[in-house]
Amino acid sequence: MANEKILRDMPAPVPQAQEHWGSDAIAAMLRELDIPYLALNPGASYRGLHDSIVNYLGNERPQMLLCLHEESAIAIAHGYAKATGKMMGAVVHSNVGLMHASMAIFNAWCDRVPMLILGATGPWDAARRRPWIDWIHTASDQGALVRDYTKWDNQPGSVQAAYEALMRACQMAQTAPCGPTYINLDAAIQESKVGPLPPLPDVSRFAPPPPVQPAPETVKAAAQLLSSAKSPGILIGRVGRSMDGWKARVALAEKLQAKVFTDIKTPAAFPTDHPLHAAPPATFPDGKVLRDCDVILSLDWVDTAGTLKAAWGDQPIGAKVIRVSVDAHIHRGWSADYQGLPPSDVYLMCEPDVAVPLLIDAVKARPAAVQPRQEPTFPEPKEVSIRALALALNELTQGMDICLSKLPLGWNGAYRHFRHPLDYLGADGGGGVGAGPGLTVGAALALKGTNRMVVGICGDGDFLMGNTAVWTAAHYKLPCLFLIANNRSFYNDEMHQERVAKERGRPVENKWIGQRIDEPDIDIAMMARAQGAVGIGPVKELKDLKPALQQAIEHVKKGAVCVVDVRVLPGYDAAMGGTPPSASRR
Ligand SMILES: Cc1ncc(C[n+]2csc(CCOP(=O)(O)OP(=O)(O)O)c2C)c(N)n1
Ligand SMILES: [Mg+2]
Description:
The chain has about 575 residues and is of the alpha/beta class. Helices cover about 35% and strands about 15% of the residues. Magnesium ion binds next to helix 15.
């Protein structure tokens, strides 16, 4: 169900329809399927559907959210799914809109989020094409543009076929492993008169299946390994947002007295201040700590093989591995986002949220043994840095519920604790820079009306690529706070140039060329104001940081969209981790 608090652009009254069009039927089907929103950028290839959503459905269930770029339409749907676990829709114009959308679709694919993407093509029947434009916007296999990173795509040839295609697309997108599906709606079908609306199927008979249960003997085998382990470890990766799931993971870790690791790439999955949480969330867990484990339970950890390799190097992996994941069902040949093939001494082909309660019952309790870990300490920042930004945010949001929808590359997992599934939503999935703003707006859409404030901390490069999502947040009154960790550079890649220069004995001081975003200096606060948001900054002095953040938080509490340009030092403090450059080739 759509959140009733979201502003809806109200159509003028429409006389009762005397006749129906193909797109009316498709719109009616979207309502049957309970698609709450359609994030979109318009285009004539789907003008029929556009009219039906507005003038047939009254722009309600689904409701349109206008986006200024297709990439942000998809990123918004992605952020919404990350926060809710639920699916919304996006609509993009024929071929060109889909091309714009494609990177964000790849991010959503890698992040395994459900999403219904609708697109359109000029009439497949060439006799019905308008000259020129319908021809350039017709492709003979449009779905091929995104086929390798969607679960399914289809171009239905009739209204009845569209009904079934939409039901299949929704069912597949929401069946784990979840992912985007793409339906390409022929303009001619949308714009054909259909007489009375063809009867809609009973969609309840086409719902996604309940989660698959693992074979009992695999649960038993996993429990035996865990119960007899000297030092079990749990890698918690892609799991659900429910509080029940969260509590179950804590209960399992406590029963086993297992060391727990979480991943900065995936959403909050375990209280990071729990004594069993062995090391701050990171791209790769601390290899030394992981190597102490003799049995490792991987709960759909994104890169189990790579993590084991990082810990053991060229040595044989000194732990038994239990793998809990349905992810292999989605692995394809085009992209290697499936990662290395991890060894699995026991392989439970189910979702972690299903396996954990079964394992709690099946394992033997171990006596408490693990020593509480040491909290890392950091020097007091002397200048504006990502660390200083984190400290100020932590102090000013004490006692508040915050949802971090994005973190910048230089963030260290120890900068802030996560104590609730919505405290942090993870990264962009596919490493496609530019997702941060849209992800933040999608989370703000999902969480509007709750008392949780959405905060997206974006790199300047990330923000500049996707910043027009701010307008969508401002227009639909979706309060959220953007903190821009602005180092005036695509700094991650400056570090790569530095590394290459060193390796080749060439001058390191040239690393900024083709990387620095300077001269002219971009006024990010003005870019926010230009789109109807509150813009604060640039914040250059440490003494100004807290007051600026305080002011920003007050604005967002009152319902504003606010962007703060924080001029952080260019440089990640390697000692503090962040995303270690060695781990990133992005
Ligand atoms: C679409 C896309 N283009 C380029 C890259 C390569 N890339 C990875 S990180 C990065 C820099 C991002 O800049 P910013 O968000 O300012 O973060 P910073 O590195 O400065 O901390 C770039 C260009 C990418 N991952 N995705
Ligand atoms: Mg930057």
